[in-house]
Every structure is written in C-alpha cells, then in structure tokens.
Amino acid sequence: MIVLGIETSCDETSAGVVSGRNLLSNVIASQDEIHKKFGGVVPELAGRRHIEVISAVVKSALEQAGLKLEQIEGVAVTKGPGLVVCLLVGLGFAKAIAWSRKIPLIGVNHLEGHLLSIFLEKPDLEFPFLGLIASGGHTILCLAQDWGKYQVIGQTLDDAAGEALDKGAKILGLGYPGGREIDRVSREGNPKAVQFPIAWTRHRELDYSFSGLKTALSRFVNEHPESREQLADIAASYQEAVVTALVQKAEQAVDKFRLKRIVLSGGVAANARLKQAFEELAYKKQIEMFAPTIRLCTDNAGMIALVGEEKLKRGFRDEINLDASAVLTLENWE
User: How many Cβ atoms are within 10 Å of 257's Cβ, its own excluded?
Assistant: First the structure.
C-alpha cells in the first residue's frame, strides 16, 4: 500500500510517501527565516506560505519516491491539532487529490503522528510502551497499547516543555527557534550553576507544570543583570530543570505501570540533553529507550503517511467533508 502524507499544522509544509512502514520520501519546507524576525510563528504568514509552496512540496515528495500521483493509493493529512489557517491548506489540498483520484482520504491526529514516528525507523517495535510527546504546544505522557489504542496518563497543566524552552530563550535574548538555541548554548554551560525549581504537581502525580519555571528565570535575570556573562550556565541550568521534570514523571510512570520501553517524540525529543537523560534512565531501570532521528522529531509528513497507512489497512477512512480542528488530544480509533 502506498500512502501520501501531507502536514501543514504550523510552520512546516511537508509531504511524504510511505509504503509498508518504509519511508520513501519526506520533504519539509521550513519557514524559520520568515518568522525569525517576529520571534514566533505568525499564523497568517504561515498559512500564506503553505499555499505558495504546497504544490511544489508534494511534487518533490512524489519525485523523490520515484512515483507518480496515479500510483498513490491513499492520502493522509493532518486534521489537527494546530493553527486552523494552516491546517486548512493541507486539508484542502489532500481533499482535492482524494476526490480527483477517487482514493481514500485519511485524517490523522498530529500528536499520534509524533507518538508513532519511531516506527519509520523501528518498524518492528513492540507495544506496549510509555510515550512522551514533547513539543512547543504539547507535553503528554501516554500508554501506547497498540495502533489506535492509547491512554493519556499525564500532561502539562500550563506551558508545554517546548514552549518553556522557547520562552526561556527569549528571556535570555537567544535566537529563534528558541529551543534549538538553548540546546546549543547549554552544551557549553554548567547545568548545576543555578538552582531553578522543578515543577511538581501534587493532585495529579504524572502531570507537568512549567509556567513557574519561566517566571523563576525571568526573576533571576532581572535580579542578577550581571548574570548575562554566564549565559551558558543559566541556559544549561534552566534546560536541566525542564529535562529533570520530564524524566522524573516518566520514571514514576515506568514504576507505576511496570513498563519495559520508553519512546520519545516531538520537537523537544531532538534536544541532546533530554536524550542523554532518558538514556541514563533506561540504563538505571534496565529498560529500552527509543527516540527518532532529529528530522523525524520535527513536524513532518512521513509520520502522517505512516499513521494513515496503518489506519487504511484497518479499514478506517474519512469523508470528503472532514474538517480541521485546532484542539485535539490523543484519540482511540474505536
């Protein structure tokens, strides 16, 4: 089965082709340079750029896969969550292909795409596993029992981990994208130089909270103006607080549910220190830890095509009136 995937949930326009969990192509057109001067994504500009490049991106994905559109057996597209003005571009393009070629349309949850992206590199990975989806908009701990069978056991109560890193970078005057810059600068710093608070929610033990950490960083910088000379140390200490919170909750979940493997996903999974910390946790607990390569951590259509293929094999497809949704959580297929 050959499935074309389309992803336009935020500021990457992507198209990819998957067949039998094999990634045949995965083209990503980034908008970092467009949004850099604004310090964040401007939805209207993002949507306009998607319109400008989506046709060329899909064409490139087909060419790299060595295929023609006539050979595609299904088209999978991100239905949410994301910026509606962006989602609608990909959704409209996918619908046009599905309708004109009379092939199935499959709406895919962006979060599910991240969670399962590891199967593009580890196609024989076994369920169940503990999944951590950490990105700019979401931080979710879940039990993945099978394809389409998930249980959310923890999530952020305020800022997402990626959002905390992005905002921290802005407070420190670093570049854009912030999370990537904090990762880079932190490699030269001492993560124990400053003691930032580790968020610990009391009422729901596996939930996260990062808003207080951001406030603590802002207060520290304001009270210690000379501290900018130790920028790498501050960045490393701040990053360490985010990483520690993510690892501690994951360790609790591993113990509570007696899990044998952890899968990281989402943009924050590209963070070098986070990967190292989870490798240390896996060694400590004698369990397996998996994380996609950096290109599959970011938003990409390969992961959307992957989930679309698995849904199509199980008989799931959507009507042509499928709509975009700005807010979605992980959903079970049945």
Answer: 13
Short-list 108, 113, 6, 110, CA closest to 51: 6
**Residue 261 in tokens:** 């493997």
Q: How far is CA 225 from CA 194, 219, 228, in A?
A: 14, 10, 6
Quickly list H helices, 109-230.
110-116, 161-171, 178-186, 211-223
Distance from C-alpha of 106 to C-alpha of 98, rounded to nearest angstrom: 9
| Location of structure tokens 């959002």 | 163
DSSP state of 86: H
Cβ atoms of 299 and 9 closer than 8 Å: yes
Q: DSSP secondary-structure letter at 109?
A: E
Output the pLDDT for position 187. Answer: 94
* CA proximity to 158, closest of 214, 209, 82: 209
CA distance 181 to 74: 38
- pTM for this structure? 0.95
How far is 226 from 42, CA to CA, in rounded Å? 33
Q: Compute the half-sphere exposure of residue 177: CA atoms within 13 Å on the CB side of its CA.
A: 20
Do residues 71 and 3 lie in contact, with contact meaning Cβ atoms separated by under 8 Å? no
Q: Which domains does the chain have, with CATH numbers?
A: 2-115+296-313 (3.30.420.40), 127-291 (3.30.420.40)
Sorted by sequence, the CB contacts under 8 Å of residue 121 that are 6+ apart come out as 292, 293, 296
243 Cβ contact partners less than 8 Å away, ≥ 6 residues apart: 271, 273, 274, 277
Residue 269 CA to its chain's centroid (Å): 8
Please write the tens of the pLDDT for every residue from 250-286: 999 999 999 999 999 999 999 999 999 999 999 999 9
Q: Quote the CA–CA distance of 147 and 308 in Å, as a whole number.
A: 11
